[in-house]
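Handout, section B. The chain below has 189 residues.
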Amino acid sequence: MLPIFLCSVISLTIVIERFWVIREENVAPKKLISSVCLALQIGNKENAAILELGKNPFLGALFSAALAKKNSGVEAMRLAAESSSAFVANELDRYLGALGTIAAITPLLGLLGTVFGMITVFGVMESSGAGDASVLAGGISEALVTTAAGLSVAIPSLFFQRYFERRVDELMVLLGHDIEKLIELLSEE
């Protein structure tokens, strides 16, 4: 049960951390994008919104990559943003593999606990006989608790892994759309 408990703590920590990090206002803040678009349209490159966007680890990374290639043309800006998007996707996907691993191994840990419990029950039956069915049923019931615990950790872990993978895909599409707007504004200058 201890490994299952540790897996549940790790899983819960990852879920809370991912909910905090991959919020839309953290990844692609709408107000900031609007402010940056306005600053680019009026030609104010020293605007506070542009400087703030540069600090954003997601959209800011794409924008900075595109801005660095501004003098090389639109295609160069798009390629730079696209190559940076792999880094951004990696940051957004962080820990989701661990969440999937927890979803895969906790049922197996539960099953392992059940097998050990059953071995213990059969060992008791061998030494004292199988005369008391309540002792046998209690031992089997206790052994199955680990399987239930493993499944109780695995099911939510798998659910949240799939949810976050889908959310990351949505955010990457949103980032692509937003960076395309910014590249168009940069190219108009």
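Note. The chain has one domain: 2-188. Compare this with the example in section A.
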